[in-house]
Amino acid sequence: MNENLKIKEGLASLSDAVFIYMADIDHIDCNLHSDCITEAEATKAAAFWKADDRKRFLSGRIMIKSILAKWIGGRPSQIKICAGKNGKPVAVSDIAAAWLPHFNISHAGKRVAVAISDHPVGIDLEDIKKVDFAALAPSVFSENERQVFEQSEDPAFIFYKYWTSKEAFLKALGLGLVDDLQTIDISAGIDVSFAGQFTADPLKLDFFRSGSYVGAVCYHAQKQLEFFDFKMPFL
Predict the structure, then answer these.
(1) What letter would DSSP give residue 182?
(2) How many helices (H) does the chain have, and how many strands (E)?
(3) Which domain range does residue 34 map to?
(4) Is there a contact between 150 and 133 (Cβ–Cβ < 8 Å)?
(5) Does residue 10 fall inside a structural domain?
(6) Using only C-alpha atoms, what is the Rg of the chain?
(7) Which of 1, 18, 38, 205 fits a 20 to 30 Å CA distance from 227?
(8) Predicted structure pTM score
(9) What is the pLDDT of residue 8?
(10) Sign, Cα dihedral of 221, 185, 146, 170
(11) SS3 assignment, position 103
């Protein structure tokens, strides 16, 4: 991965690419950067039982606010995250006329991933674990996907590829997880019929691996992905 991207070209730098920032939560000092955490966010974090859950949530907020602050030439504390349509997080700023990019966040284990684009984008990250993939497949996969899964020499890889891809796909469309995931078929890429109900934008899916983590990104088809390590301070 590249080092931190120093954003100098403003919004034009997103014209051809989607930026993916990856971070290890152990490398983000949430206390040091608590000035950008709102009271509501601190209360939500405190409600998590596990320390890692609190750290993942707060790290994600610090990451996205630090990144988006670059677009307005302001401070992370000037970025507010609120619920948009269907509960998908969106960013606003108290700086007049500030336009902020679309973003999406996912976290798993010790990692947080943030996607930034000038079009709606979705990302999902999962920590590879041993689960009963065969038992879950019928409620997750379409008929075509099940065939690929059952015939694969690496069913775990196929499971995570389809699972993360469907999550990213739905998030890019501004939707949460649906009850009938098996009606969505991404065995050959984007389910154009399903996507067409929510957007006219051409979309594509990319799957990636990072150590013991796997993930997928759904984004505008005319763009490419660029990956960056996120480190504080974000300059």
Answers:
(1) G
(2) 6, 9
(3) 17-229
(4) no
(5) no
(6) 18
(7) 38
(8) 0.90
(9) 41
(10) positive
(11) strand
